[in-house]
Specification:
heterodimer; A: alpha/beta; eight-stranded mixed β-sheet; 10 strands; about 45% helix; globular; B: mainly alpha; 3 helices; elongated
Chain lengths: ~350, ~130
């Protein structure tokens, strides 16, 4: 009995090492973005997808999802059973997603203006044509939500019935540590963009990880070692790691604009931002608004998200706060149980 | 007595202790003016290094008669322009088609109304 007790922890450790080796070396990466879809339009590197689940599309207002320029969009369709797109599709919504693709060096001159004026309106037109609908729901995540907000403010005449924003920064008065790090006196913005063209994903990732260096670099590995025998945990861990390390470069001019006009000059909330020479006035937004902020988000702080509701003219506007982080708004246990159904229910209620 | 050392457990405990002990002091450091300043200096050095590499590579490629990234990007831009024009044309054709089919529908309605009116006139003439 004493001998077996002495042997057991070592055995456990060996078992763990074996399993960890399997996880890191032997097993293939999990497949993401599995909801069936078709490409209905392409422009440069961007693709517009229409999701095709087995369920009949019963909701008359199609949903167009717009994601940030700096990551890959499959966070919205991460894995069967853990996907906002799958959830909405299975509830009978006609879901579309605008995937920005991976910018090449030739796209370094692309500004946010180009994406907002040349891509989003075209995508909306295609969605309305394809679904034969008269109105649309725009759903934006992170910077995609900021871009959707700007677009809606610039086009109050377009049939945007609902605007759904997930952790989208609007007010940059206090962007936490980024406000300090991106200070004009120290941050060499022009030099950086002029030299690199597009800003490498690794640089943006470094900034995000620096917000909480120990927990973002060591934390994930401690947790995987701790729970390596839980298959479900391992799958979710791998999915998250894949997404976190699978970013795309930020188009140079868009980055220059994002840092200067948003972080350094805070133009959007003050109605000073101009897109292709047109002033963006948030009060022009009349669409039904669902604005979701996350209490533990250190990328888009709740105080950056919430002020939009005071600026818009929407009669129907909801500010919804959830106790998660930036990514857990769309993926993970809480998202599946609470946030996805909440979003679906809100869209459903406001699409009748 | 189970006295065998579990390295994973030890590592986890070490991480948790380090995290809880250093979290606030690290966060405080990250929020200081000096940190932002030193981050700017590191960035400046990185950019200067990248600029040097870029200049050296470009001059080598020019000497070796190999197209540079800039030149390849120019070709890609030309293709993107053509792609955009095709997309615009496709849109234009679709809109023209829609307009034409609306006009034809309207014309059909007008002709049918005219026919009805002619029938009525004929009826009246017969009387």
């Amino acid at each position: 009995m004493l001998a077996s007790d002495l042997k057991s922890p070592a055995d456990e450790s060996l078992k763990k090492v074996k399993r960890l080796t399997e996880v890191f070396v032997m097993e293939p990466e999990p497949q993401v973005g599995q909801t069936p879809k078709e490409v209905i339009w392409t422009k440069n590197k961007a693709k517009l997808y229409r999701y095709q689940p087995a369920v009949k599309k019963t909701n008359k207002v199609p949903i167009l999802m717009i994601y940030a320029l700096i990551n890959k969009p499959y966070i919205l369709d991460l894995y069967p059973g853990n996907s906002l797109i799958e959830h909405l599709s299975n509830k009978g919504h006609d879901v579309y997603l605008l995937d920005w693709g991976v910018p090449g060096y030739e796209d370094r001159h692309m500004k946010l203006d180009d994406y907002i004026v040349d891509y989003i309106p075209h995508a909306i037109k295609k969605v309305l044509r394809k679904s034969k609908a008269k109105e649309i729901t725009l759903l934006g995540y992170c910077i995609g939500g900021t871009m959707s907000t700007i677009f809606t403010a610039l086009n109050p005449h377009l049939p945007i019935r609902n605007l759904v924003l997930l952790t989208s920064p609007i007010d940059f008065t206090d962007a936490g540590l980024f406000t300090k790090w991106l200070d004009k006196r120290y941050f060499q913005l022009d030099k950086l963009v002029d030299t690199l063209g597009n800003i490498p994903f690794e640089m943006i990732d470094f900034g995000n990880k620096l917000l909480s260096p120990i927990s973002t670099t060591y934390g994930p590995y401690v947790s995987i070692v701790d729970r390596v025998e839980d298959d479900n945990f391992v799958l979710n861990w791998k999915l998250m790691q894949k997404w976190l390390n699978d970013g795309v470069p930020f188009p140079g001019e868009a980055y220059r604009q994002w840092i200067r006009e948003f972080y350094q000059e805070n133009k959007l909330i003050n109605d000073e931002l101009e897109i292709r020479g047109e002033r963006v006035r948030l009060a022009n937004i009349k669409a039904n608004l669902l604005n979701i902020s996350a209490t533990r988000d250190n990328i888009a702080l709740p105080n950056q998200v919430a002020p939009l509701n005071d600026k818009v003219s929407s009669q129907n506007k909801t500010l919804h706060s959830v106790e998660t982080g930036h990514i857990s708004v769309v993926t993970g246990r809480k998202a599946i149980k609470e946030i996805h159904p909440y979003i679906e229910n809100w869209i459903n209620e406001n699409s009748k | 007595m189970t006295a065998t050392l579990d390295p994973f457990k030890f590592w986890k405990e070490m991480y948790e202790k380090t995290e809880s002990t250093w979290r606030s002091s690290i966060q405080n450091t990250l929020g200081t003016e000096q940190f932002a300043q030193s981050l700017g200096q590191i960035q400046n050095q990185y950019v200067q290094y990248q600029e040097l590499i870029k200049t050296l590579t470009e001059s080598y490629l020019k000497e070796a008669n190999i197209p540079s990234r800039e030149e390849v990007a120019k070709v890609a831009s030309l293709i993107i322009n053509v792609d955009t024009k095709v997309d615009d044309l496709e849109d234009l054709i679709y809109e023209q088609k829609e307009t034409t089919s609306n006009e034809i529908d309207q014309l059909k309605k007008d002709v049918s109304n005219l026919e009805q009116k002619l029938d009525q006139v004929l009826e009246l003439l017969k009387k």
